Amino acid sequence: MLNHPGDAYLERLVRLTSTVLETPIALISLVDGDRQWFLSHHGLDTTETPPEMAFCAHTIASDETMVVPDARQDPRFCTNPLVIHDPKICFYAGAPLQSRNGHNLGTLCVIDRLPRHFSGNQVRLLEDLALLVSRELELRRQAIVHPISGFVQRSSFLVQAEPEIGRARLSGQPLALLALQLDHFSQVRHRWGQAASDQALRDVAAFLVLRRQLRQSPLAGRGRRSRPAHRRHHPGGRGDRGQAETQPALGRAPVHELRDAAAAAAPSRDTDR
Questions:
Q1: pTM of the entire structure?
Q2: Long-range contacts of 95-98 (CB under 8 A, 24+ apart)
Q3: Together in a domain, 47 and 167
Q4: Which residue among 77, 85, 203, 220 is least packed, with the fewest CB closer than 10 Å?
Q5: Is residue 31 part of a domain?
Q6: 113-122 pLDDT, tens digit each
Q7: Considering only CA atoms, which of 115, 137, 122, 114 is closest in space to residue 13?
Q8: 2: in domain
Q9: Residues spanned by the domain of 194
């Protein structure tokens, strides 16, 4: 998501925020350890800033909306290069963008180059707009990541695999595809219920993440039905690929036997290559 450019929907949201709250600048920012990235921006051309300069890094440290009426008079920000130099931030208000697990990912914020008062109604409006942004980000996350296995969905996996294929072709390194299919997986759900089926898929996914192949190249995705896939490509366009399938008899198998079947089908450390 940090490298995903803003689209028309997010651009409309920041324009609406800027218009409704009457500020020249509105931003959707995401923060990681290396930078503050503007997923969408209005009134500011910059797309990212160092985290040590980010007002939003202060905002996401709590779950409350942060309002700075005049950054020039605030000891936290008065020496900030973004205050002293362009864009010469004076007023700032930011509401946290929370994930469904309660983690603060970034902010929806508004900025002005002049000091100003921000009323309680304006704070609540900014928070309502931030909830709309958070909801949109969560919908996009659900479209990309399978909610049970944690692997990216098939369509997103194929998109993310393209740069890996390109790097392999340029470097001459081998790239292969390992596809694991859990045969008769539906019988787990029919016999032991949805909760047991979901836990079995989590167990297999967790096991795959621990495998040496995934530690070396972490691109993994979920294919049709219950098929986590790890993709590598052979340089030269020959399209060589390896495929391994788990075929446990699941008619009476408890959850732990499904995990053991996946372990038995996986290559040993001596034969990882």
A1: 0.60
A2: 95/59, 95/65, 95/123, 95/126, 95/127, 95/129, 95/130, 96/59, 96/60, 96/62, 96/63, 96/64, 96/65, 96/130, 97/28, 97/30, 97/130, 97/133, 97/134, 97/137, 98/63, 98/134
A3: no
A4: 85
A5: yes
A6: 999 999 999 9
A7: 137
A8: no
A9: 154-271
